[in-house]
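for the writeup, i need someone to sanity check this before i put it in the appendix. the sequnce is what the collaborator sent (i think, or maybe the updated version? ugh). structure was predicted straight from it, no edits. if anything looks off just tell me and ill rerun, i have time this weekend
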Amino acid sequence: MIDSHAHLVTDDPAYPYDPPGGTVSDAVRHDPMTAERLLAALDAHGLSAAVAVQRAHVYGYDNSYVVDAAARHPDRLRAMCVIDARASDAAKTVRRWAERGAVAMRLTSPGGDQHGGTPGAGWFAGPAALEVWRQVSELGLSMCLHLYRWNRDESLRALPAVARAFPGTPVVLDHVASVEAHRAEPVPGTPVVLDHVASVEAHRAEPVPGAAGLLALADLPQVHVKVTTLNFARISAAGVAPSVVVEWLVSRFGAERVLWGSDVTQTAGTYADMARIARESVAGLPARDAALVLGGTAAALYGFPPLPQTGEPGPQAAEPGPQAGEGGAEAGEHAG
């Protein structure tokens, strides 16, 4: 089992905070999820590896901690860096982080958050951003996109042209692209079974807000969908079982294009609960599909060695605190 979305933070002064918002919460300062603490949690709950995703809310575009952590633990961690694809030197920045071992780049609308931001898709589809895609493609990296509800629809409309221009570059949509299944209205019809799948109700016969744009990407084989604890928290609160969403995603994209991530430190909850809910979410899938969602897809995307056989979880590791004050599950979506 591989966690494809684990945010890391350290209190080591060698990695100073540089929060875009100007402040870092006490929860993050006093209860950091270091690489070593994450590895202990993986061991305690039967996971083999994780993707260390830059905590941009804390460090901005300085990805030093995640790349250094991955370099220290090459068999168990991979680094995903956040960059500003609109910057004039963005392509060079991609090369710099790749030279330090990064395997993926993550883009989001600079300055945006769950409350709004600059409209348009230029942050990943503009002329400068296309140079980033070109560099990512040449280096054999993957790309991850974080959409918000306010820019989801226009971004999903712009993505096919970019994806077709770089057909060999895997694309991962975080948090199920902020699709809002819990807001769907019941309609008659045949039941359907689909970086943050965002809250999809599989028993709805018609697309929920944002689903049409997401499902339009199903024919693009390099597009992957990541479902996280953020999604599970929202859909559970709406009375929908996480397994329903995962089964729907797998039915539309195939298990080899669906992956799970904890979103630990950004979404509230203990790692024990995150791992448990992830396993429960795939309980209705065939064993092969369940294994892909929980690790096989991530292993293929991020170049992990073959997954080892894992036994029963060991002794309980110290759990991260909720840290929900910076836009976790209670906020519905976030900039992490």
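The CA atoms of residues 165 and 329 lie 35 Å apart. The chain is about 35% helix and 10% strand.
thx in advance!!
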